[in-house]
Structures are given as structure tokens and as C-alpha cells.
Amino acid sequence: MSNPNPFQTTLGTDAQWVVFAVMALAAIVFSIAVQFRPLPLRLTYYVNIAICTIAATAYYAMAVNGGDNKPTAGTGADERQVIYARYIDWVFTTPLLLLDLVLLTNMPATMIAWIMGADIAMIAFGIIGAFTVGSYKWFYFVVGCIMLAVLAWGMINPIFKEELQKHKEYTGAYTTLLIYLIVLWVIYPIVWGLGAGGHIIGVDVEIIAMGVLDLLAKPLYAIGVLITVEVVYGKVGQGGSLAFDCLKILKWWKLLWFQLVSIHFSLCVCRVTSYFLLN
Fold first, then answer.
1. Residue 135 — φ and ψ, nearest 5°?
2. What is the rounded end-to-end Cα distance, in angstroms, of the chain?
3. CA distance 225 to 79
């Protein structure tokens, strides 16, 4: 099995700094913009501020620790660096990316729960597979892909079931954004299979590919979501049925506040984990 460039170099680190800068800039721009938006639109802004802030934190941790070349999986010729901070990022940001779309629907809580559960399981199988040596890693890869198919099926349901649709104005944009996100999320396991899984591409190439996907799936996707809610809100108006009531905003704000607090926790986890792995 080939294993080109099994460790991160300055090329990968530079790419991580670039992604960090873009994510941080997006978070700052969204944070400024939300101050001038009406209350019913602010929840979506907060979700995407959290996404970009968490991603920026993760990429900062990756760039700072990238030169340590640890932790690794395998030994000898098969040894390869595992960029574990990206999985910590995904555990927090992928549910929020789905939440962007969930807020455009009338999904029941039970449905949201198993979709989010499948999402977290997908990430968990990804990181376990990355640290697994030999052909056993492909078991985790396949199960992770099954989890992706499960959550994709759940997210597709509102397109065809009217009872899950919030408003006809949302349906077209929801479909477009969902297809865009699913296509990107299908590319992620392909890159994983070529990198952490198959050792066909080097760590630097994997970092660059994942970074491009993260930029497309986070700040660019966020712009599409924000344009959607702005346009629909403009059509329906402040008195329309799409406006969120204050209690619902407060309910979701508690969730987002927890996610924002977890940003600092995730950075601490990265630091503590690095300490134990490097010593």
C-alpha cells in the first residue's frame, strides 16, 4: 500500500491558516450583520456564527499543532498522521449545519433526534476508522456511509411530505441547499478513503481537500441559507406565518449558547489531548 507524505508539512499548515482566516472573517462579518437584522432572522445568523467560529477554532488548533506530526496511526511504512481536531470540529458543526435546514421545516423532535444521532455516529465512525490499522478500518467507513445515507433520507423527507414543510416559499430553497450539502458530504468520505483510509494521497493533499470542502460547506453554505431566510422573510413580511415567536427563539438560543460555550471546551480538549499524545 502506498503512503505518500504521511506527515503534515508547512504546505498543509499554510492551508490550515488560510481556512482559519476565512472562517474567522466569516464569523466576524456574520456577527456584525446580525446586529442590524430583525429578531425573527437572528437565529439563523447565530447558528452560522457558531459554525464558523467553531471551525475557526479547530483550524487554529490544527495549524498550531500541525508540525508535531502526532498522533499517528499504524507503524513503520504504514504510519500516518491523523488530523483529529477536524473530527472534534465536525461533531459540533455538522449538527448545526443540519439545524440550518431543520429550521426551514416542521420536523418533529423525534425525527430531528435520530437524524442528529446518525450524524454524530457518522463522525464517530470516521475518527475510529482513522485510528484503526489494517482492513478493519473499512468496516467503520462503510457503517459511517450508512449513517450518512440514513440522515440524508431523513432530511429528504420534507421535500415530499407537506406536513413536514413550514411554508411553500421555503421548499424550493430547502431542496437546493439540501442537495448542495449532500453532494459535499458525499465527497468527504471519498477524500477520507483516499487519505486516512487508503493512504493514496498525502496528508497535505488531504488537508487541502478537506479545507476546500469545509469552506464550501460552511461559510459559502451559510451565505445561501442567510439569503434564503432574508428573501422569504421579505416576501412574507413581519406579520407572516414564517416569523418565529419569541419563545421559540429563546428555546433555540439556549441550544446555541451551549454550542458557543462548547467552542472554548473544544479548544481545551484539543490542547489537553495534544499534551497527553505528545508526552
1. -70, -15
2. 30
3. 40
pLDDT in tens, 52-90: 999 999 999 999 986 665 667 766 667 888 898 999 999
Q: Residue 30 in contact with residue 236, Cβ under 8 Å?
A: no
Into which CATH architecture does domain 10-278 fall? Up-down Bundle (1.20)
- Summarised one tens digit per residue, pLDDT across range 207-264 is 999 999 999 999 999 999 999 888 887 766 554 444 444 444 445 445 555 555 555 4
**Can you give the three-state secondary structure of the chain, one letter per residue?**
CCCCCCCCCHHHHHHHHHHHHHHHHHHHHHHHHHCCCCHHHHHHHHHHHHHHHHHHHHHHHHHHHHHHCCCEECCHHHCEECCCHHHHHHHHHHHHHHHHHHCCECCCHHHHHHHHHHHHHHHHHHHHHHHCCCCCHHHHHHHHHHHHHHHHHHHHHHHHCHHHECCHHHHHHHHHHHHHHHHHHHHHHHHHHHHHHCCCCCHHHHHHHHHHHHHHHHHHHHHHHHHHHHHHHHHHCCCCCCCCCHHHHHHHHHHHHHHHHHHHHHHHHHHHHHHHHHC
Residue type for 234, please? G
Domain ranges of the chain: 10-278
Q: Length of the chain in residues, anyone?
A: 279
